[in-house]
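Slide 14.
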Amino acid sequence: MCIAFSGQRALACAPLAGNPTVSQFSKTMPARPLRIVVLEFMFAEDVAALDMTPVGVVDPEYYDGWIGYDSARFEGVPTVGTRQEPSLEAIASTRPDLIIGVGYRHAPIFVALDRIAPTVLFQFSPDVQSGKADGARTQLEWTRSIFHTIACMTGREEQARIADAKLDAGLARDAARLKEAGLTGTRFALLQDLGLPDRYWAYTGNSTAAGVARALGVHLWPEKPTREGTVYVTSADFLKRPDVAVLFVTTSNAATSVDATLDSPIWRFVPAKKAQRVTLVEPNIWGFGGPMSALKLGDMITEKLLALPKH
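Slide 15: predicted structure.
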């Protein structure tokens, strides 16, 4: 377990037992594992941010499109299956001394993974509905806690401090830019294109995006927390929300026009669309990453809000 404090951030490492972010872990853990297999994109990013290269990754062909942080590091790293279906044989072939996975996907194969190497499964996000979020108001705090735990497990506390300082400084810089432009308090929605007709994910009040927005001094809509930090919305949900700008993460190319991307006829009646306060965002802005994804998200939100016409 790792306890962290914002601002001048200090890491205090403790046993995994009692760590709310950990759902399962092996009885015996290595002191300083070097050969790590990661079974989720967030953990690949976390390990890279700690200046470590895993010996096995899942879905590497999609990592660059969804996350993209330090992608060159993963070139040539063996593939060990997909996030949904890791290959036990491929994992074993890498001779790992630590496997990192996520509970909701990999709990059914935990025993098999544990036979290969010591394994830790993380709970992907805080359980806001049960009230057992251990003080994490948003997924940003939760994912930072996961990052710190991995740093403690690998003896990389100093690298974690460097990453923390970079993220904190970046968010503070972005907040200052928005304040100087008179945009503190701006309300916006961050939508994720799903390839469905006029149906999108909106990141909600307990998402990483909401935590980043809070650090920037702006407000993410919708505010109500949800189990996964997202909720389905359509263009009609914005008809009576003239104060909400829309940042739309595309699955294709942010260089295409807004009109060509948002092809539902309802969008032309949306106040934000009429006011040209809807903008497209490059595809690899992912709301479920680690600290470097949060920094990228903060920079993107800032740049997009600064470029929009003022409300």
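Speaker note: The chain has eleven helices and twelve strands.
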